[in-house]
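As a point of orientation, let us examine one representative protein, giving the amino acid sequence and backbone structure tokens.
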Amino acid sequence: MSGSYGVAAANVVRLTQKQAPLAVAATPPQWFAIQTRYRFEKKVVIELNHKRCEVYLPMRTERHVWSDRKKVVTIPLFPGYAFVRIDQSRDARQAVLKTAGVMGFVSFGGIVAAVPPKQIEDLQLLLQEKGLFSLHPFVKAGQRVRVRGGCLDGLEGLLLQHDEGKLVISIESIQRSLAIEIKGYELELI
């Protein structure tokens, strides 16, 4: 067994063309979120376009005012993130990961999560129609929140549902829940 690194020569199996495994059918392309280096979003999009990847970088325009001038600038809607539509093959993922400025795919628990196409379409429609929107911290049911501003400033609780301007907050210290009209209130994650 010299030079075989622990593999006996009898255990090596050679595949002939008839025994070669069949190629697995390619999966349809899906959208994935990628994380980029700070202020590298536009450069990453250019590089991925050169690699013939479908990329979407949602942008917004802002008016910046300095002491000596005013300027309208276009900046990423989600700084540090872009979306790429690729198949799930290893080669496609490696092409994205080897792009300068790409930090990696957004994943949850080590599993890369696909972005539903409907979410990308809705985002594109919103930006195309120039609808009024503002950025807001991500809040989901079950998270601890604090009300900021107004007469309820500082109230803490558990966000249970958020629909039609009503918010149900559970106040743990007295083990009661209240439905609160939250129009005009800002929520902060704790």
